[in-house]
Amino acid sequence: MKEDNKHSGQGGSLNFLEQIIEKDLAMATTGGRVHTRFPPEPNGYLHIGHAKSICLNFGLAAKYNGKCNLRFDDTNPTKENVGYVNAIREDIRWLGFDWEEREYYASDYFGELFDMAVVLIRQGDAYVCDMSGEEIAAGRGTPSVPGKISPWRERPVEENLELFERMRKGEFPDGSRVVRAKIDMASPNMHLRDPVMYRIMHAHHHRTANKWCIYPMYDWAHGQSDYLENITHSICTLEFEVHRPLYNWFLDKLGISQNRPRQFEFARLNLNYTVMSKRKLLELVEGRYVKGWDDPRMPTISGLRRRGYTPASIRVFSDKVGVAKRENVIDMALLEYCIREDLNRNAPRVMTVINPVKLVIENYPEGQVEELQALRNPEKPEEGYRKVPFSKTLYIEQGDFMEDPPKKFFRLSPGSEVRLKYAYLIRCESVVKDQQGNITEIRCTYDPGTKSGMAPTRKVKGTLHWVSAAHALEAEIRLYDRLFEVPDPENVAQGGNFKDNINPASLQIVRGLAEPGLRDAMPGERFQFERTGYFCVDPDSSPGSLVFNRTSSLRDSWAKMKDSQG
RNA sequence: UGUCCUGUGGUGUAAUUGGCAACACGUCUGAUUCUGGAUCAGAAGAGUCCAGGUUCGACCCCUGGCAGGACAACCA
User: What is the pLDDT of residue A566?
Assistant: First the structure.
């Protein structure tokens, strides 16, 4: 029961795949084994949707004492390359999963696949077809109109065998012939209308180089690869549901009954306020709408990593979204909740002023500096304290001061008193403005008897974060927001484009002032900037010039209140 | 006019396989707080796509509808 809690988003209840597996285990249908695989095509970067699949496949294996393979589905040499292989590996490892020595490639099986195809041809279950791609497509019919029989369908077995061999040897040009399964051109399932198994491609493959010039199609390669790897549960997304009869047909014709893999489909993850298709993501990158695949606004794993998301937060998220067969759109707020929950618990606190305004404490001794004790993380008092310098001239957040405050404004305004976090109570005495009327300086007095940690004093409504002017570190702060301003970016009017919905304010770069302890912060380190949000050090950062990415703002009920009041 | 899949609060997922719907996010109160964060307490919100049927009893079983999605690359 405790285990169930750990792996299921719904307490003790099981998702439909877990139910299937537990039944299989109980009835020994898979010999007591659970063996899954995550099968990415190395032709793009992984995104949060893949993360769900990764967590599912590796998670199921872990939960049921099974194994999960990493298998690169590399059957199309024109689209795939090692660069993607490496990026995918890194992302999966970063997420926290280990495929041990089981890193496989569909291309590892090209030889076996060829031999199995020969078996099908011998049995009269496959044939070499000389039609062109266009002819095949035209002859396939439509879902409600049967396809036409290929003139090559009844080619003698010996001739098929010979042609197949010659295809392999490279005697024919690209596109001149294919091998097709002989199934049923009238099937209501389009995938059963003599699907292509092999095509000729004189292309360099990232692993097999020029050894092959015929390459298997997905449907032919996938199930057989599953079988060769002893996969018990082959889990994929819903769009492959109609492929399942074909998956099973190949297995049937090859006489595979022992250790026979079975395919199950679940609904892929959709997230609002973003797009997930490889094509659209690529468009964002190539159109320079974002800076790259790892731009912190991208829903890619590398983007989320750079944004400051933790692997654990993504795993928890994957767990919380659940697994089922109906189409779904997850609220971005759930992802944000997951990272806040993690970082609230684990990120050290630090004070950084993002939009600074100068504040001078008139009665504080000139030149005096106090080293104040500040909790590293109130959620983990055991981590102790850090030191923060305090002096006469400080900076606070512009938004923390209002000359004419509305009703429930708890922050600083003329005559009001607030606490400077870990320091003193201060009262605003006056403001200094420039000729345009902008506030350039806030003049305050402090009460020396109210130092943080001293005996109880009078209560104030507001506590402000601050930074000492003479000690502050200047930093570049990249304020990220959702990439799209509408929940469903793909929903556009006729002639429109999803890119029309891009949020023009998805990135704002400002220069802020940070407490000096941040001087040696390293890329990847995460912090909570007290009262503003969670931030992490960007790889662009260097010792002399800090760069922070905003992972997420803190929940802000004050902002919410303002919004709702118009 | 084809085949397959799916319909449960705003969102997502449950319901011990027939016993009048639970959990999470979100929303809204209040308490508390040296983060308007966190935490704590509480509230609102679905009668399960529709119509019949079986049953003492249906989200669950049956029949018929309706709605949404997937499928017609030599992509995966």
Answer: 58
> What does pTM read for this prediction?
0.95
As a whole number of angstroms, the distance between CA A451 and CA A447 comes to 8
The yes-or-no verdict on residue A285 having pLDDT over 70 is yes
A37 is near strand B: CB distance < 7 Å: no
Confirm whether any atom of chain B, the nucleic acid strand, is less than 7 Å from CB of A79. yes
Q: Which nucleotide is nearest to A216 (CA to C1')?
A: B74
CA A120 to C1' B74, whole Å: 19
B23 C1': nearest CA residue = A10
Spell out where A103-251 has E strands: 103-105, 126-129, 178-181, 196-200, 214-216, 233-237
Mean pLDDT to the nearest integer, A485-505: 92
A107 touches strand B (CB under 7 A): no
ipTM of predicted assembly, 2 dp? 0.96
3 state SS of A493 = coil
Residue A506 in contact with residue A483, Cβ under 8 Å? Answer: yes
Gap from A19 CA to B55 C1', Å? 28
Which nucleotide is nearest, taking the CA of residue A406 and each C1'? Answer: B36
Average pLDDT over residues A323-340: 97
A76 CB contact with strand B at below 7 Å: yes
Give domain A349-471's CATH number out of 2.40.240.10, 3.30.70.360, 3.40.630.30, 3.30.230.10. Answer: 2.40.240.10
| Residues of A assigned a catalytic role | 41, 268, 278
Whole-number Å distance between alpha carbons of A87 and A41: 12
CATH class entry, domain A278-346+475-565: mainly beta
- What is the pLDDT, as a whole number, of residue A494? 78
pLDDT band per the 50, 70, 90 thresholds, residue A11: low
Strand B–CB A552 distance below 7 A: no
Domain boundaries, chain A: 33-271, 278-346+475-565, 349-471
Q: Which CATH number fits domain A33-271: 3.30.420.40, 3.40.50.300, 3.30.565.10, 3.40.50.620?
A: 3.40.50.620
pLDDT tens track for A194-208: 999 999 999 999 999
Is A391 within 8 Å of A368 (Cβ atoms)? yes
| Helix boundaries (H) for A8-81 | 16-27, 48-63
Chain B nucleotides with an atom closer than 7 Å to a protein C-beta: 1-8, 10-15, 17, 22-28, 34-39, 68-76
The reply to whether A349-471 shares the fold of A278-346+475-565 is: yes
Question: Which 472-511 positions of A have CB less than 7 A from strand B?
Answer: none
CB-based contact A529:A352 (threshold 8 Å): yes
CA of A100 to C1' of B55 (A): 54
